[in-house]
């Protein structure tokens, strides 16, 4: 069997490891535009602030490709998929045949049109190792940095460069920071914590134009800057599948086995949609753990096994300047809120199930809440009043405790 994987991040690695659990003889080829050994993208901010290095950023050991008998074609870009001939073509005109193909192309930064942007010399995105290296090279201790976007990428960038520049201003159209994962109160707590680091925010605002090192904002203010970082969002990298005739909405459409409508072509990771079990909707869940599990599902099925990807939820585990945050699920339903000792907790329930949560500060045993969401555990079968206060296994029945500990299957 000839397996080809386009991509080299979490979904691709999950697929390789799953394939090798089923098939230790088939040929696996990884094709990736970046020339680097697989690495963890969320760590690029820690690389900039000196909390990690290139060696520790690797998502798998140096020997990963040789140990798994993988042929890596790094620094190579796929220009087209031909499902009729079951080949992929590279930009250097090389043609690679496949029996099973996985598209794990991730996402690309969204750059909105802004007047004068083409005249800004030092402008960067913040998604790849090359992005981080280029940004670091541009910074000086006197640099004034303007970051467009107060989401996860923009704020991690701010944290990563905060000790390498003079001042950081973050601008966002939304009325709060991290609007995709935090409620109003949670956002306020995190914003106040970040502001204590000297980072300034301008919310419900956007850039009208750039001119001579100054950003003129929609509210009439002007912000002088030396370096611009654009982190307003990403778009799933779906073009290869779309151009090959595959079905694409916001992301690549797949079934519960991660198979696209193209024969023997699978998709996983940030480029693909999946079923969010907390809302029942198909959507892109651009999260590293979900990408790995989706890739693992695709790899299993590519190699002749059978595995469904049917338990995805939105989830984020992140920290800013020592303040830790974990969120999961959706926030539509009845709310339980507890705020004390500088920590914030929100649990959201609906139809007798835990649907989502926000934890800021105290995040211990968050996995119990996550498990309740993933397993759709009826709350009337556990001591939820106890779990609301303090998540612990003793609040479950004996049989449920064994399930949580992996002793029995559901």
TrEMBL record:
Cofactor(s) this protein requires: FAD
UniProt keyword Flavoprotein, yes or no: yes
Organism from which the protein derives: Youxingia wuxianensis
Transmembrane segments: none
Domain NADH-rubredoxin oxidoreductase C-terminal: 314-377
Keywords: FAD, Flavoprotein
InterPro entries: FAD-bd_OxRdtase, FAD/NAD-bd_sf, FAD/NAD-binding_dom, FAD/NAD-linked_Rdtase_dimer_sf, Rubredoxin_C
Highest taxon of source: Bacteria
Entry annotated with the keyword Flavoprotein: yes
Record's protein name: NAD(P)/FAD-dependent oxidoreductase
Pfam families attached to this UniProt entry: Pyr_redox_2, Rubredoxin_C
């Amino acid at each position: 069997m000839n397996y080809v994987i386009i991509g080299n991040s979490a979904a691709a690695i999950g697929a390789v490891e799953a394939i090798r659990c089923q098939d230790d003889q088939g040929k696996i080829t990884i094709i990736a535009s970046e020339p680097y050994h697989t690495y963890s993208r969320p760590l690029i901010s820690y690389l900039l602030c000196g909390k990690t290095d290139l060696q520790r950023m690797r998502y798998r050991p140096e020997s990963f490709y040789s140990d798994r008998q993988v042929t890596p074609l790094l620094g190579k870009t796929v220009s087209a998929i031909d499902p009729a001939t079951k080949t992929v073509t590279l930009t250097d005109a090389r043609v690679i045949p496949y029996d099973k193909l996985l598209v794990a192309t991730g996402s690309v930064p969204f750059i909105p049109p802004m007047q004068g942007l083409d005249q800004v010399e030092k402008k960067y995105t913040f998604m790849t190792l090359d992005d981080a290296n280029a940004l670091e090279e541009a910074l000086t201790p006197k640099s004034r940095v303007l970051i467009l976007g107060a989401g996860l990428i923009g704020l991690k960038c701010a944290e990563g460069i905060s000790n390498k520049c003079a001042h950081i201003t973050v601008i966002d159209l939304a009325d709060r920071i991290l609007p995709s994962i935090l409620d109003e109160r949670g956002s306020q707590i995190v914003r106040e914590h970040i502001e204590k680091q000297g980072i300034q925010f301008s919310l419900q605002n956007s850039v009208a134009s750039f001119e001579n090192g100054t950003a003129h904002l929609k509210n009439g203010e002007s912000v002088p800057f030396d370096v611009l970082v654009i982190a307003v969002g990403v778009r799933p990298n779906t073009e290869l599948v779309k151009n090959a005739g595959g079905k694409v909405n916001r992301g690549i459409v797949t079934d519960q086995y991660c198979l696209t409508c193209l024969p023997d072509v699978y998709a996983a990771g940030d480029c693909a949609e999946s079923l969010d079990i907390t809302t029942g909707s198909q959507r892109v869940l651009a999260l590293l753990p979900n990408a790995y599990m989706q890739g693992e599902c695709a790899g299993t099925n590519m190699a002749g096994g059978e595995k469904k990807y049917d338990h995805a939820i939105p989830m984020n585990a992140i920290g800013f300047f020592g303040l830790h945050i974990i969120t999961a699920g959706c926030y539509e339903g009845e709310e339980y809120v507890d705020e004390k000792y500088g920590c914030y907790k929100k649990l959201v329930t609906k139809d007798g199930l835990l649907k989502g949560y926000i934890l800021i500060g105290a995040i211990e045993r968050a996995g119990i809440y996550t498990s309740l969401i993933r397993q759709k555990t009826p709350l009337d079968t556990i001591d939820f009043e106890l779990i609301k206060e303090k998540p612990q296994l003793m609040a479950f029945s004996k049989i449920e405790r064994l399930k949580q500990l992996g002793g029995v299957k559901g």
